[in-house]
Amino acid sequence: MTHLQKKGKKLEILMACAFLLLMSSPALPQNNPSAIEWVNTCIKSANDGRYKEAIEACSTAIGLDPQLTAAYINRGNAYSETGNVRQAIRDYDKAIGLDPRVAAVYINRGNAYSSLGEQQKAIKDFDKAIELDPKVAAAYYGRGVARGSLGDHRAAIGDFNKAIELDPKVAAAYYSRGVAYASLEDYQQAIKSFDKAIELDPRLAAAYINRGVAFGSLGDDAKATADFKNAAKLGDKKAQDFLKSKGIKW
Q1: 170-250 CATH, one of 3.20.20.80, 3.40.50.2300, 1.10.3210.10, 1.25.40.10
Q2: How is residue 218 annotated by DSSP?
Q3: CB 177 within 8 A of CB 149
């Protein structure tokens, strides 16, 4: 193992933290037009990054119609984006209680549980989402992240493969598959996955770092250094600090 690889290992990211949060709503009932308008305002505010306003709008909708499932779903999404994950889960619980047939709610709650490290609960939700709609890539991706976090990398790879089959344009799925392969020390396959992630998202610094670690593990320090440089140019602080410690400019 080269000195560069030993240093590079410190930069390795064990599992992708990115996930697909579904902001769309199921079809809205037409029994309370005013409540529906507030849900639409909530969605627009969230899509614009104004999550506090989104929460307020969905809360208004709930006040007008406490049975409006979409209001709880979208308020939960907004809470999740602000870091109030427990409150998001409470909203998803309420939405599921009102309508247990919406796969997106289980995906979002699964993502929330996963972000809290509660992977078994997350997997249970992703399983349910897949049961309800087996053609949603986000459910397989989320389950793959949860399984990888538990060390079940082979099962995670199977999920990432299915997510890629359903939606081959999501860089995060290739990236996470690469991390899973690297965790199994299958560095050639890891590099292929990181290559595709970078092709789809050339600004994904974590993919360069992990590909660099994989190259270092195979003894190719030149390619490893080139990848760390690319990550540093994208603003990754760990890559910058590593290169600086080695006296390497980027």
Answers
A1: 1.25.40.10
A2: T
A3: no
> Which tokens go with 203?
């600004």
23-82 pLDDT, tens per residue?
444 444 445 779 999 999 999 999 999 999 999 999 999 999 999 999 999 999 999 999
Radius of gyration of the chain (CA): 20
- Tell me the CA distances in angstroms from 168 to 13, 40, 92, 241, one per residue in order: 22, 30, 28, 34
- CB 217, CB 224: distance < 8 Å: no
Query: Could you state, in order of their start, the residue ranges of all structural domains in the chain?
Result: 170-250
- Asked if residue 6 lies in contact with residue 38, where contact means CB atoms within 8 angstroms, the answer is no
The gap from C-alpha 97 to its chain's centroid, in whole angstroms, comes to 25
3-class secondary structure, 99: coil
